[in-house]
Amino acid sequence: MRFIFKTDYAQDIKLAKHGGQVFWYSALMLLMFAAPWLFAEYWLAQLTLVLIYSIAGLGLMLLAGFTGQFSMGHAAFLGVGAYTQAVMTNAGVPFPIAMACAAGLSAAVGVVVGLPALRVKGIYLGIATLSFGFIVEEVLARWESVTGGNAGIHIKKPDIFGWVLETGNQFYFLCLVVTVIATLSILNVLRSPTGRAFVAIRDSEISAQSMGIHLAYYKTLSFAISAALAGVAGALYAHNLQFISPDQFNILQSIDLLLMIVIGGAGSVHGAFLGAIFLIAMPQVIAQVKDFLPAAVGQAPGLQGLVYGLVLIGFVMFEPMGLYGRWLKVRTYLQMFPFYRKGMFKRQKSFQKSDRLK
User: Fold this and answer.
1) Could you give the CA distance from residue 15 to residue 182 in angstroms, rounded to a whole number?
2) Full set of structural domains in the chain with CATH
3) Among candidates 65, 82, 16, which has minimal Cα distance to 262?
4) Dist CA 253 CA 17 (whole Å)
């Protein structure tokens, strides 16, 4: 088993804790860059979707997993970014500028949502963000002069200052670069005082406030960063589909995003990627398995929803730490065998005693 003895603060906030992480993450990056030559076109398209959803998952993970703010309308930020990208790209604006505007507008909308939501928490915050999602979906459907209404809108291919990305391989590399930048940005935020303030608010708002953390500022900042990442993911999502309509950013999309971070593992950056892989891979698995099921079951229209629900219930009841938590248990078991104890990962209360007095 690996023991890391930390002797200074700089060692504690390093991105790579030991040489093993450097090796495996470097190997992963080499595999990702070699993917266009290793995988068929269909699987490369699925991997591109995983990268896009991972960016949105990182934003929602920061908001829900690290700050403790519940959002059921996150698809609205995805839609704002997608439509901003579509409108500006079709107007001839280069891709980087259009994406920056999509992220900025989504962040501004996130601030607008975050400010009124400061007075509510828990399920009430979920209801507030859900209402916002309905409002954005209705605006996208009714503002026909800009969004095209329910008929949708087509979007041109990404144009990076005259260089048009025509092929799927080129767009994959674009998504990969943006995902790496987004991941490094989130990791740097989390190891900064701002990230530690987010975690303090998640663990106990009363304790965080007693330490001088400005709750309103950091909650609003978390909403803004999360919405900006969702806007970036929405911009890439629009280019990936090349056609968007308001019904693509409804409550079901928001639930998919929540499902992604819960199953991936709330409170971990790895969980955003594992959840995105699950979200993209599960429909493929169901499509492959349904042929071997009885016709009454395999052809049932609600099969996918039923499987999603059962998987979510199973994770909430038996594996609240998600896929990443399960991997941690397996890794710890292999490292400590035969001295592993089952109670090492016992579920604990996520609130402090002071919170019970409210």
Assistant:
1) 14
2) 38-346 (1.10.3470)
3) 65
4) 35
User: Model confidence over 279-299: pLDDT tens digits?
Assistant: 888 888 887 887 777 777 677
Give the residue among 300, 271, 275, 272 at the shortest CA–CA distance from 286: 300
Single-letter residue type at 155: I
Q: What is the residue type of 252?
A: L
Distance CA 48, CA 110 (A): 26
* Nearest by Cα to 239 from 30, 69, 52, 55: 52
Query: Which helix (H) or strand (E) is 160 found in, with range?
Result: strand 159-160
Query: Cα(136)–Cα(246) distance, rounded to whole angstroms?
Result: 9
99 near 232, Cβ under 8 Å? yes
The pair phi, psi for residue 331, each rounded to 5°, is -65, -45
Quick: pLDDT tens for 317-333: 888 788 888 888 887 77
- What's the whole-number mean pLDDT along residues 44-66? 91
Q: Which of 99-113, 215-229, 296-310 has the lowest mean pLDDT?
A: 296-310
Angle at 136 between CA 118 and CA 89, to 5 degrees: 115
Alpha helices in 13-167 (DSSP H): 19-38, 41-60, 74-90, 95-114, 123-142, 144-147
Query: CA torsion, points 208, 209, 215, 219, in degrees to nearest 10?
Result: 10
Dihedral angle sign, alpha carbons of residues 305, 310, 316, 321 = negative
Enter the DSSP assignment of 179.
Answer: H
Q: Dihedral through CA 331, CA 332, CA 333, CA 339, nearest 10?
A: 160
Contact of 81 with 105, CB cutoff 8 Å: yes
Please identify which residue in the block is written with the tokens 């309103």: 216
Which residues face 320 on adjacent strands? none
- Can you read off the two tokens belonging to residue 91? 């107007």
Provide the residue count of the chain.
358
Query: Is 330 within 8 Å of 306 (Cβ atoms)?
Result: no
